[in-house]
Amino acid sequence: MTFLNILLIIVSTTIGGAIGYKFLGKVKKVDLEKIKRDSETMIENAKKEAEEFKVKNKENTEKLKTRIQDSIEMSTKLINQTEQTLKNKEQNLQKQEEKLNQQKLKIAEIEEEISAKEEKIKKLEKDFIKLLAEKSKKTETEAKEEILGRYESELNEDKEKRLASTVEQTRENSHKIAQKIIISAIQRLCSPTSVEPRAILVEVPKDIIKGKIVGKEAQNILYLEEILKVDIVFNDLPKTISLSSFNLVDRRIAQKVIQKLVGARGDINKAVIDGVIKDSKKEIDKELYEIGKKMVDKVGLKNLNEELIKIIGRLQYRTSYSQNIMRHSMEVGYLATMIASELGLDVNVCKVAGFLHDLGKAIDQDPNIQGSHDFLTKELMEKYKFSKEEIHAAWTHHESEKPSTPEALIIQAADALSASRPGARQESIEKYIERLQALERTASIFEGVKKAFAISAGREVRVIVDPELVNDEGTQTLATKIAQKIESDLSYPGKVKVNAIRKTKVIEIAK
């Protein structure tokens, strides 16, 4: 590179730097002016905002000031009103205290007056007794005893009159009160129908299985009926076996046996049947305990013997006129409890006696056990240590012994309500007609009976008495004899009322 070239480069660099410096200075100058203008604008805007804020703050302060002042005035008014109210109350209290003091003074004066009069009366009594003793020539003690005896006699007479009046009023209203309590108990009871079917059906998948169960020449069927004491019908319906028995526990065991035999593999013979019956009885025995435990817990009885619980479970498989005894017993327990609570009697006695009143029916179908179900109920409850009140109320519901407690009468009423409610029991039309005819025949055999009618579904016998053969006194005797004859000769649910009517009609014509 030559000296000339170097010199040219230095000159060029110097000139470029000068031009660049000048340009940058100009740009810098422009930026500073713009920033200055922006700053002035911002300062003006801040001043305006500050002024506006100041004005708004002043307005808010004035408003707050006004509110505080109004609040102070309101509080002052309330304080003044409260002070005035307190002053008025103080004045009223003072007036009341003054009145009370005046009344106390009056009471004190009256008490003094009463005391003075009592003293005067005592003195008069003494003088009277003394005078009476002098005139009657008796001592003061004898005269006093005579007066006291007279007062006592008058009081006893007044007491007897009041008692007779109370008894009469109670008799007049007792029927209405009893109806009201019974209606209330019935309306509060919500219980499904307790009627049991007479037969049960077991389904069989194939009709060929029926033949397998029947066996050769029906040997299996005959053996089952002999052992289980049930009637087994195979030919009425396809794929169905019908079981019926008066003893529903036996029927339930038979149902379990047939169900097991339906699913059995291989040939069915007596040995297989014996094994199935043994297993089924064990299962039903366990089932009875579970049913009894469930019902006992539902009713609320505690600490009962396991054997007793199993006996209670048997009530599920016992009927009377097709009415399930377990459900009937629960209904009687509920109704008796409600009636007892209305009358203020022992609710627990009524609950226990009502639930267990038909306990004897759990075992009365056993051929080895003798006696009516009410006596069996008494024996079972005595065996398992129930109280005397509970036993008496439970077993006297058919009056094998005259009820002597109100709880026993309640069990009678509850039993009748449960048995007689619509849908509770079933009876064939033939048996129903026979029962009515038997009632009429029994009443008609007595001398002096013109006609007899069984009415109210066989719960009443209306007897028309010949007035020429039977007088008024004899009518009562006749009704008693008819009732005794019905009770000894006939079988019927509940009670039968004998209503003997003697009517004399005399007609004369005045001419």
Write structural notes for this entry.
- The chain has 511 residues and is mainly α.
- Among the domains are: 199-420, Hypothetical protein af1432, CATH 1.10.3210; 429-502, GMP Synthetase, Chain A, domain 3.
- Helix content is 69%, strand content 7%.
- It contains 14 helices and eight strands.
- It has a three-stranded antiparallel sheet, covered by helices on one side.
- The longest helix is centred in the N-terminal third of the chain and has 134 residues, at 3-136.
Residue stretches low in confidence (pLDDT < 50, at least 5 long) are 21-29
What do the pLDDT scores average to? 83
CATH architecture of the domain at 199-420: Orthogonal Bundle
* Spatial order of strands in the largest sheet: 1-3-2
Fold-level CATH name of the domain at 199-420:
Hypothetical protein af1432
Helices and strands in order:
Blueprint: H1 3-136, H2 140-188, E1 199-203, H3 207-214, H4 219-228, E2 231-233, E3 240-244, H5 248-262, H6 270-299, H7 306-314, E4 319-320, E5 323-324, H8 325-343, H9 347-356, H10 373-383, H11 388-395, H12 406-420, H13 429-444, E6 449-455, E7 460-465, H14 472-489, E8 497-502
Parallel strand pairs: 7-8
Antiparallel strand pairs: 1-3, 2-3, 4-5, 6-7
Helix pairs in contact: 1-2, 2-8, 5-6, 6-7, 8-9, 8-12, 9-11, 9-12, 10-11, 11-12
